[in-house]
Write a structure and sequence with these properties.
Elements lengths: L3 E8 L3 E4 H8 L5 H5 L4 E4 L6 H16 L6 E7 L11 H8 L6 E5 L5 H14 L5 E9 L16 E9 L5 E9 L6 E2 L8 E2 L10 H18 L8 E3 L6 H10 L3 H4 L5 H4 L6 H12 L5 E8 L3 E9 L1 H6 L6 H6 L2 E3 L1 H7 L15
Parallel strand pairs: 2-14, 4-5, 4-6, 11-12
Antiparallel strand pairs: 1-7, 1-8, 2-3, 6-7, 8-13, 9-10, 12-13
Length: 360
């Protein structure tokens, strides 16, 4: 493909909750598992913060970094499993918020945690086919608002957004190839009308990763077969990381090396950001990558499948490397809150999830 990433932007909640604070309230997991599963802190969305506000912040950064006239953007795809609306499109709000033209293709893409990767593959195909010059793709989720108090997933359920401007020409990373694998497997799901995610599998050990492995293995094997590449041809990988076990299982089953993956696992610092998790890892890699690196992306979505794809960085990445708004700087820019404050900010317990104010 000639299409690639021209720029990217990231947004993370500034408020964070330590896993230890959650443990002191519920004590619903063996304490030593916090360390064994690399569980440290998670994001807490503010009272007026949601998937759309995070998506808008990340997209604004990506557009500013691109230097592209917004009128030239031909599509905006929002990949998310936690839109504030059950029916209304969330992406249309972003068109207005970002000052984009009304004649672009706009759509929400919902495919669990791999929503962002799926949206990127769809947008890249449109650009590659010449249907538009540029496309804006955003992966954003607020898992924290959709996990019930006392559920073990609460230790890591976080929030974040990553946006990519796609096009041809002066790309910082060219999209090389992609494969996918999908069938129905309800490891985690949320039914219509329900606010909170339901677990169809466990959180700890092999059983918590049965859907992951059933999709990651065939998708990645198909990718290597399609491209003729092997794991040794890659310098780095961004992989699923709901907990510290998932990256290790992907490493083992996909034949990757530990140092290709572990330096870019961010679960301990920010938790599981849903659709933004693997793109966030990719953004972190791009913050430091050099020209000519082949980077693999393995993105799994619960009950939905796995997308495996790759990019090759270019000389333009070195020239356009961001000096502000890097993933590490955003991770470090934080305010710790206690468990009660997190519950208040996330409108949980007895408070309406759709209330207009946090103060009445």
């Amino acid at each position: 493909m000639e299409t690639g990433i021209i720029s990217y932007g990231v947004a993370l909640p500034k408020h964070r909750l330590a896993a230890e604070d959650t443990y002191q309230v519920w004590k619903n997991i063996a304490h030593d598992l916090l360390d064994k599963l690399s569980i440290g802190e998670r994001g807490v969305t503010g009272p007026e913060e949601d998937t759309i506000t995070l998506a808008a912040a990340a997209a604004k950064m990506a557009l500013e970094r691109s230097g592209i006239d917004p009128e030239k953007i031909g599509a905006l795809l929002l990949g998310s499993g936690t839109s504030p609306y059950a029916t209304k499109a969330a992406a249309t709000i972003l068109v207005d918020a970002l000052g984009l033209p009304a004649n672009l293709l706009v759509s929400d893409v919902q495919c669990a945690e791999k929503s962002g990767s799926t949206a990127l593959i769809m947008a890249a195909s449109l650009v590659e086919a010449g249907q538009m010059e540029y496309a804006l793709v955003i992966a954003a989720d607020t898992l924290n608002r959709h996990v019930s108090p006392g559920m073990v997933l609460e230790y890591v359920a976080s929030a974040g957004a990553v946006a990519f401007v796609l096009g041809k020409g002066e790309v910082i990373a060219k999209i090389e190839a992609w494969t996918t694998h999908a069938w129905d497997q309800n490891d985690y799901f949320r039914l219509e009308g329900e606010r909170f995610i339901q677990p169809g599998a466990g959180f700890v050990g092999w059983v918590s990763n049965w859907g992951l492995l059933d999709h990651v293995i065939p998708a990645t094997e198909a990718f290597f077969k399609k491209t003729g590449l092997t794991a040794e041809d890659f310098s780095k990988f961004a992989v699923p990381q709901r907990n510290g076990i998932r990256p290790l299982m992907v490493i083992g089953k996909a034949g990757l090396d530990m140092m290709q993956v572990l330096p870019y696992v961010l679960i301990a610092q920010i938790g599981d950001c849903g659709a933004a998790t693997v793109p966030l890892s990719l953004a972190h890699i791009l913050d430091w990558a050099e020209a000519g690196e082949r980077i693999g992306v393995i993105d799994y979505g619960c009950g939905a499948g796995c997308d495996t794809w790759s990019v090759i960085t270019t000389e333009a990445l070195v020239e356009k490397r961001p000096t502000t708004g890097t993933v590490m700087s955003l991770l470090d820019d934080k305010v710790m809150v206690d468990y009660a404050t997190a519950m208040k900010y996330e409108h949980k317990l007895m408070r309406s999830p759709n209330q207009l104010s946090n103060f009445y």
